UniProtKB/TrEMBL annotation:
This is Prenyl transferase. It holds the Pfam family polyprenyl_synt. Its cofactor is Mg(2+). Keywords: Isoprene biosynthesis, Magnesium, Metal-binding, Plastid, Transferase. Belongs to the FPP/GGPP synthase family. GO terms for biological process: isoprenoid biosynthetic process; quinone biosynthetic process. PANTHER family: ALL TRANS-POLYPRENYL-DIPHOSPHATE SYNTHASE PDSS1, GERANYLGERANYL PYROPHOSPHATE SYNTHASE. The gene is preA. GO terms for molecular function: metal ion binding; prenyltransferase activity. InterPro entries: Isoprenoid_synthase_dom_sf, Polyprenyl_synt, Polyprenyl_synt_CS. CDD domains: Trans_IPPS_HT (cd00685). The lineage of its organism: Eukaryota, Rhodophyta, Florideophyceae, Hildenbrandiophycidae, Hildenbrandiales.
Amino acid sequence: MIFTLPISSYLKILNLNLRTMIKARNPILYAAAEHLFSAGGKRIRPAIVFLVAQTTMNSKIILDNHKRLAEITEIIHTASLVHDDVLDDCATRRGVDSVHNTFNTKIAILAGDFLFAQSSWYLANLENLEAVKMISKVIIDFAEGEVQQNLTQFDLNISVFNYVEKSFYKTASLIAASCKAAAIISRVHKNVQNRIYTYGKHLGLAFQIIDDILDIISSDQTLGKPAGSDLRNGNLTAPILFALHEQPDIKLIIDRELHRRSDPTKVLNLIKNSSGIQQAIDIAQEHLQAAMYPLKFLHSSSSYISLIKLAEYIIKQISRQYILYLNTNSFRQ
C-alpha cells in the first residue's frame, strides 16, 4: 500500500510496528529488546529516511519498502545503543535505566545481537540487493568504530581526523547508508543516489559532533543519560581535543585517566573556559553546509528543500542552545 501522510504520522505507525517486529520466543529477551523502544527516542534516523523517500519520489509518496527501511534503520541504531551502553557502562539511556542495568550484561549483549539479527532478516526481505549491501556494511562500520574508540581511550595523540573517522563509523555511516538506500528504493539516477549519500554522511557527522558538544554542556535530564560520559570513559571528542591546545592542565588530568574523583568536573570546567566548544560548533556547521551543498546542484533542487531545511534547522538549534548555555552559565578559571 502507498500512503501520503505527513512524516509525523509515519513515525507514529513506525513506533507501533517496531514493537511488533521485535517479538521473540524468549520473554526475557523480548522484554530486554522492548525496554529501550518503550523509552521512545527522537526517531531522527527514520524521519530522515522518510524525508529522502518523499523528496526522491516525484509524487511525494512513501513506498512500503521505504517504511520498512526506516524501521530497520531504527532497529540497527537501537541495537548499537544497547551494545554501546554495555561497553561504556552507561547507567541510563533515553531517561530510563539502560538494558544491562535493568537486566544484566549478558542479557543486554544478547538483546543487541537479537536486534541486529532481526534487522538483517527484515533487510533481506526488502529484496533489493543494492539496498541490502548498503545497510549491511553499516554493521561492519559499527564494529570498526567501537574498536577504534576502545583502542584510543585517554589517548592524547588522537587527531581531529581520527575523531571524525571514528564518528563516521559510529554515527554517520548508518545515516548516509540509509539515505542512499532510500534513494535506491526510489529508483533515482545513481548521481542523485551519491549526492544523497554525501548529504547523509555530513549530516551524520554533524549529528555526532553536536551530540558530543551536548555531552559537555547539557544536564543528565536533558540528555537522558549521564552528562560528561564520553570524558569519563576516555573518549576524546571534538570539544576536548580543541580545548587541549588552550588548557595544558587537561592533558595532565587525562594522562592520569581522571583517577581523582574531582578530575571530571575539573576537565569539564576547563573545556568550558576554552574556545573548544565554539570550535566544535564551527566544525559541525561546516559539515551541515557540506551536507546541503550537493543537493543544490540537482536539476529538481526545489523538491529537496525539506532536506536542506532540516540541515538549516539543525544549524539554528545548536546556535540557540549554545547562546542559551552562555547566558545561563558563567565559569571562571
